[in-house]
Amino acid sequence: MQAAAVVVGRLGLSSTPLLATRRLTRMADTLSRPSSDLAKFREVYKKAKHVVVLTGAGVSAESGVPTFRGDGGLWRTWRAQDLASPSAFARDPSLVWEFYHYRRELMATKHPNPAHLAIAEAEQRLTAEGRRLVVITQNIDELHKKAGSKEVLELHGSLFRTECTKCQEIRPNTDSPICASLAGKGAPDPNAVNARIPESELPRCQKCSGLLRPNVVWFGEGLDNNVLQKAGK
């Protein structure tokens, strides 16, 4: 079975939630050593029955999506441990939701760029030829899906899904605002200690009224086993 792996954008491999991504990257390395030889790439790509495209924050940067550690990156303004960890959510779900609501509203204004569109078009062509292209992304902005990609594995979840902390139900959510108490909220103050929104007014589960959280992978959490199993195939 012939396969090819394409890496697009920067893959951040330094934090705990990305340990499994290292395995995926090593898997890609075993298929073919990284190369900038375009002629060689075309040769391998032409023969490949299965193509995996690995994308990181860099692929969405051209769409105006802030990266995490580059110039103007999110973690240069806010501290990850205060906003993107289970302990942060347990300590102050209001502040965490203010941050993620800001990101949801920002992402909703962004559009796929030529890289997203090219990947989606490549998938369509390969599918018509009886071949397969799968996108494995660290991004949570859903821009690959907006571009038309059908086979997308989101390693770190999505800003536009919620997960109930009580019944664990996961469902799509594109509401704007996600709840009335967050309407009109902008970026949270980097020095804020509390966002001061009562927990009862934060997003709630339609099924059991439990507190919702963003369906994203936070620092200190493992990746979704179902997604990893699909990626391994």
TrEMBL record:
The active site is at H156 (proton acceptor). Zn(2+) binds at C164, C167, C205, C208. GO terms for molecular function: histone deacetylase activity, NAD-dependent; metal ion binding; NAD+ binding. SUPFAM superfamilies: DHS-like NAD/FAD-binding domain. It comes from the Eukaryota. The keyword Zinc applies. One of its GO terms (cellular component) is nucleus. Keywords: Metal-binding, NAD, Transferase, Zinc. PROSITE patterns: SIRTUIN. Residues 31-233 form the Deacetylase sirtuin-type domain. This is Deacetylase sirtuin-type domain-containing protein.
